[in-house]
Amino acid sequence: MSVKVGSRLLVIASVVTAAVFLPCAAHCSSHGEGVSPAASVIFSAGGFPVTDAMAMSWVISAVIVLALRFALRGGVKVVPSTGQSIVESIIGGLREIIEPVVGHRAFGMVFPCLLGYFFFIFLQNIGGLLPGIGSVGIYVGGEFRPFLRPANSDLNTTLALAIVAFISWAYYCVKCAGLGGLYFEIFGNKADKSEISSAMYAMLFFVFLAVGLIECISILCRVISLSFRLFGNTFGGENLLHNMCGFSSVLKNIPVVNYLSYLIPLPFYFLEFLVAIIQSFVFTLLLSVYIGLVCNHGDHEREILKGEEYA
To answer: Positive or negative, the Cα torsion across 177, 179, 182, 188?
Structure first.
């Protein structure tokens, strides 16, 4: 990333912080005892319930499409515009990190999917910091129901993301390494037959088979770990902001320290902004590692052979 583009991103981040987070921290409000783990149903369409988390997902998806179209309006240019420079810098930075992990052969296939995960999760996370998200709604039977809430604070959303990520992992691994390569990575006998006896090699078959069964359990547990990690951090952050806003509203009634009520939530908004970046990056990087464990062997062997050739 160039210094010029980095300076632009820093200015944009500063403007967003001053124009959005500070007013939001100053006027935040509290409803009830905390953020509900379950999403609220806004309305039903043909018997199908539409929740506030689902509505937020649709809004973020539309924002991604419209933002990219606006940043790249007029098509990709040889001399990039400001919007194109920002998009290219972000994509270039992620490419430098992800390509060595997944391997050159699989990179072209998986990179668009990984970019989608990163931007979707990141915008979902920072969406909860915007004014009106989780605080604008109606009361139904004495219960407050917001129109929008951060979708990642709903376990259904993060579980759906993890399931789709698991399906993506299986698809790309089979497409890149084949069924035989995937089977060998999980159950295959990885001992060098030329270095051990045939009897020992046959015995190791059962050892690697048992290890493969354990690996299958580990692979299935990835769905749980990916979903609960993202949900726990987002849901915990929402409750933290909720409590800090409630605490600041109490201080507003104290004459001496009421001016502090506008500053107390602000550091936690910066913290949640940092968590939003980290969690979207962690989810994307972990999925890249899972794919690279199966698809990146060919690139590694090619680098070894190239090194031996030059040696």
So the answer is: negative
Amino acid in position 247: F
In the chain, the percentage of residues whose pLDDT exceeds 90 is 7
- pLDDT score for 20: 47
| Measured distance CA(96)–CA(94) in Å, rounded | 5
Predicted TM-score (pTM) of this structure: 0.75
250 within 8 A of 193, measured Cβ to Cβ:
no
Buried/exposed 244-254: b ≥16 CB within 10 Å, e otherwise: bbbebeebeee
Q: Please tell me the distance from the alpha carbon of residue 192 to that of residue 43, in angstroms, as a whole number.
A: 61
CA distances 52 to 109, 281, 301, Å, are 33, 25, 49
- Residue 70 half-sphere exposure, CB side, CA atoms within 13 Å? 6
Contact (CB, 8 A) for 148 and 52: yes
**CA 78 and chain centroid, separation:** 31
Asked whether 18 and 125 are in contact (CB, 8 A), the reply is no
